[in-house]
Amino acid sequence: MTIDLKPFLSQQGPKYLAIARALAEAVRQGALAPGSRLPTHRDLAETLGVSVQTVSRAYDQAEKHGLVQARVGSGTWIRDADGESETEYLRAPAAFTDESQIDLSIAHPVCPPSHHVRFRQALAELADVAHADVIAACRPIAGLAHQRERANHWLGERLGVPGEVEDRLLCNGTAHGLMLAIATVVQHGDVVLTEALTDHGLISLSRTLGFQLRGVAIDDQGVVPEALEAAIVRFQPRAVCVTPTQLNPTGATMENARRDEVAEILARHDVWLIEDDVHALLEPPGLTPLAARLPQQSFHVTSLTKATVPGLRAGYLSVPRGQMHHTLPRLRATSWMATPLVLELADYWLANGMIDTLAHEQRRLLAERQSLAARRLAGHAIESRPSSLHLWLALPEPWRAEELQQQASQEGVAITTAQPFMVDPTSPPRRVRLSLGAENDIERLDAGLGIIANLLQEPPPPMLQIVY
């Protein structure tokens, strides 16, 4: 490809560093998009009037700092926001070999020792009282009858999700439910609208199922109604998939008035709604789901993983009337049925009130951590909710998100940039997501937040400044 780096070149320092910094600045300003292929070493050398060795050193330097990726037989590419960054984000905790590494990178509920005790107790009690069908289940694809009935009551009474038992489907977590809902109404090549920053799982799903994902502008309450309507008119989407409660990564949460506006737009344009309500239990009662306003054109999916224990991958998909016979074959094809034993534990805890107890405790624990973070990062712009799993931190000049991520990693703290959550290949915001639940020890969390606060008091080291 042809790229003019001369406007971004500085005369300071060695030429190879100047070229590496120019590449970073071109990406930051949008002149080079993530996923772009760079000129060959020789072509760029001729364009800039430098040696091939100088360009090679520049590319090597940029690769060391995560800006580019060299692919054998294919050349050098600006690192794609949906490639390496997502892999690194998902693998980071498993790659830590030093137990001193503080993990602020994964959206994870607090899981204190008391949760483990309750989990073991529940499993022991289930050994005596579990329904016989749990181990013999084969044909009830949508879920065991008693589990669906309990889920139906809980979804209606606690979350306000419209529907009857025959509209509820049990699945293996929210990610599975989203896949089933989207596959029901979206075909290969169709357009689906979502927030400009959204959960990385939906971005991956768009590539798996082959639909086109388009981002809609957001503010502190999620999708902006005017931007949503303009995008519907422009792209004619098959569906809109949104997270109205504690959007990942920003934490944006729609108040009921905003939900009314969004629902009215979707109803007027007759567009399918797929509502990701995975964080519903992290908010106290009062916010009604979008699906309650659009019962005939809404899929609603939630689960228990974010407010109880992360291993409880019990998902609940509510399907609009007339669509269940389309959704069930997708469930059968992907997992035959949701794992009965996991849903039996969920059913047991729904019956005895433990789910509400754990959710209440989670909100309290997260509120304590949000308060701690606000004190530690006082003076910085933060977006968060009182009981959110994470916060969205704006960085002061001249810091960039990946600069802070790299430096924090060297200091023993893992954090996440915006790149895994970006729908469109634009310049990433100068923000990072700090998750507050993965570290069960609040003193370790405090130490990690202190490291971030101390880093932001000084400018980034010069060698880091090649990263946008």
From TrEMBL:
> What UniProt keywords apply to this chain's record, in alphabetical order?
DNA-binding, Pyridoxal phosphate, Transcription, Transcription regulation
A UniProt-annotated Pfam family = Aminotran_1_2
What family is this? In the C-terminal section; belongs to the class-I pyridoxal-phosphate-dependent aminotransferase family.
Gene3D superfamilies from the xrefs?
Answer: Aspartate Aminotransferase, domain 1, Type I PLP-dependent aspartate aminotransferase-like (Major domain), Winged helix-like DNA-binding domain superfamily/Winged helix DNA-binding domain
**Transcription is among the record's keywords:** yes
Report the InterPro entries cross-referenced here: Aminotransferase_I/II_large, HTH_trans_reg/aminotransferase, PyrdxlP-dep_Trfase, PyrdxlP-dep_Trfase_major, PyrdxlP-dep_Trfase_small, Tscrpt_reg_HTH_GntR, WH-like_DNA-bd_sf, WH_DNA-bd_sf
UniProt superkingdom:
Bacteria
Q: Which SMART domains match?
A: HTH_GNTR
> Which part of the chain is the HTH gntR-type domain?
13-81
Query: This chain belongs to which protein, by name?
Result: GntR family transcriptional regulator
